Amino acid sequence: MASEKSAAPNAAKVARSILTKNLKVKAGERVTIEAWPHTLPWAIALAREARRLKALPMVLYEDEDAYWDAIANGQSKILGTAASHEWAALGKTNVYIHMWGPGDRVRLNAVPEKRLDEAFRFNDGWYAAARKSGLRGLRLELGRPFPTLSVAYDVDQQSWLDQIAAASLVPPEELERRAAPIAKRLRAGRRVHITHPNGTDLTLGLARRPVYVYSGRPAVGDKKRPFDILANLPAGSVRTSLDESVADGTIVANRTCYYDDGSATGAVFEFAGGKLKSAKFDTGAERFDGPFAKARKGRDQPGFLSFGLNPELHNTPQVEDLEAGTVMVSVGGNRNLGGKNAANFFGWAIVAGAKVEIDGKRVPLPH
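The structure corresponding to this sequence follows.
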């Protein structure tokens, strides 16, 4: 039988922090919690803590085996069909909590693209109904650790989960405090210079575009961030789109790139004249090279710049860019952050411990 203890020793503490600090759940509010077998213990903890806050929780359960049975038997269209009764529940929901499912993302990424598109066709309709209801919510990385992914990433699943739980406890106010001086400099700056003894020496351009701070608070009512009514947790980054015409030099990664079903290490990106001239990896190059070869115009332009803020993470799968003191540089599309590049490609490299200057002045990064 599932219990709070099977999630983590401090499951109740994590659940209460999520509900009070990130979501600010009030007495009487209706809380919907999405659960799969691997996240059911967390759902139980969240439901218990919601009741202790005098809120009204409801758990929506989807079974992993039943999901894969549907995929195997050609029922992907049914999986993707808009469920009007679920949409009706969204209309009465104040707070929504999503945990990644199905859990086997390695298997999910092996599903043919057509079937995958059919299975997730409901997504736009779901968000439309959620925005109409005015709900606020979170996507919890607590649901990401899974046996097959742990093998694919070559990490210990429990250690991964423990880092995610600890990082989810960092208060939004602390992340916002860490973000403030970086965000201020990004808003006013023109040139970014990133250096590191490992060979990183890269100059990038800023275009006075919006600077976004991700602190684990839902962005309800922000039309420029329509999908951020569900904030990601753990959180902790400052991001802005880059001037697509400015990039010269090299970034040498010292953090892993975690893709949906595997990883790449040792990324080295070389830029000249605002274009990516080469991308090399120690391992996993095919995860970048394959999509890059198929991508449209703009795939080789600088995308966005991100600074990590969360002190509880260290090269943690799927949230490697949130680690305090990291700098991530992407290539490809950046319209979601106010940029001009609509390329259907996203590649990235992350360096920790770098020196960063904006317009010649040092930017202190958190640790």
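Residues 172-224+236-362 form one domain.
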